[in-house]
Amino acid sequence: MLATAADWLGAACLVAGALLALAAGIGVLRFPDVLDRMHAATKPQVLGVLLLLAGLALRLRTPRDLGMVALVAVFQLATAPVAAQMIARAAYRSGRVDRSLLDADELADR
Hints:
mainly alpha
């Protein structure tokens, strides 16, 4: 009974994660500028991957698999914000950011 509930919960997490990843992909294609696309590529994508990993962990349930899923989650959480920061900084420095849309511009020369 508990295994069946875990399987259903895992399936729900897999579907929700896949939908968030789809939404992130659509956002990257549809959003107009670099900063909006960067936001779409990182925020829902990370949550989608974490939901996929949670669903996978609920379905597999072996210690070796759970360790691998935990490693993937840690690396995803460690690399996505850094990649987003580097993309934003490169876009800003190359002049591809509309500075009038920024609320605060910490990188501006004063």
